[in-house]
Amino acid sequence: MGCRQRTIPFCSTFASFFSRAFDQIRMGAISQANIKCVGSHCGVSIGEDGPSQMALEDIAMFRSIPSATVFYPSDGVSMERAVELSAQNVGIDFIRASRPNFPVIYQPNEVFAVGKAKVVLKSDSDKVLLIGAGVTLHEALKAAQELKAKHKINVRVIDPFTIKPIDKETIISNAKQCGDKVITIEDHYPEGGIGEAVASALAQESIKIQMLAVREIPRSGPPEALIEKYRIGSKAIVEEVLKLK
C-alpha cells in the first residue's frame, strides 16, 4: 500500500479474498494511495467452486470507500478499457472481473469513460429498462430476445460500466423513455450492489424499480443452474418484465 507517485500496482485475486484486506484498502484510501484491485470469480456464476469462493459482497465493500471507483466490465473490450482508465485514474479502484467466457459485445474502438453507461439495446417502443453487468448483462440481452420473439415486448438494456460513479443522467433519461419501469439484475447480494446504486440515483424520481439479486447464501453447482436457481437469469428477467409491463 506504500506505492505513491512511483508505480501503479494492480493487485489481482479472487474478489472474495479482498474482504481479508479491507482494513488495508480502507487505510490505503485514507493515505491517498494509488492502488488498483482486480477481483475475479464473482458471484454464483463461478459455479462448482462454491460459496466460499463466490464474491457476493465485493461491490458493496468497495462502494463504501469514499474515493473508490468501481468498474464492472462485461466483455473483453470493456475489460481492456477498464484497465486503461483505472491506470489513468488516481486512487483506489476496483475492477470486477467475471469467470464465464462471455461473447464480445463492443467493437475494439468503442470509447468508454468513468461514470458513463452504455445503452446496449434500444427501440422506440421499449416498455422496461433492464440494467445488468457482467453475466447479468448477457442474461438481460437473452431475455430481451425472448421477450421480443415470444411476447412482442421490446425492452431497453443498459450496461452501467462503472457502478461507482453511477451514470445517473443516462439511467433516469432512459427509464423515463421506458414507462418509468426499471429492473436491475446482479450476481451479488442486494445490499450495496447495482440495485441499490441505481435506486439511490432514482431516489428523487417517480420511477418503479425491481431488483433481482442473490438473496441467500448460495450452494455449489453448474453456473447455469445457479443463475436460474437464484433468479438472476433470463427466465427470471422475463417473468419480472411480464409482471411490470
UniProtKB/TrEMBL annotation:
Domain Transketolase C-terminal: start-end pairs: 118-237
This protein's record includes keyword Magnesium: yes
Transketolase-like pyrimidine-binding domain location: 3-102
GO MF entries: metal ion binding; thiamine pyrophosphate binding; transketolase activity
Key words, A-Z: Calcium, Magnesium, Metal-binding, Thiamine pyrophosphate, Transferase
Gene3D superfamilies assigned to the protein according to its UniProt record, in alphabetical order: 3.40.50.920, 3.40.50.970
EC number(s) given by UniProt: 2.2.1.1
Group of enzyme by EC: transferase
Cofactor: Ca(2+); thiamine diphosphate
Family listed: Belongs to the transketolase family.
Quaternary context: Homodimer.
Protein name: transketolase
Protein source organism: Oppiella nova
Organism lineage string: Eukaryota, Metazoa, Ecdysozoa, Arthropoda, Chelicerata
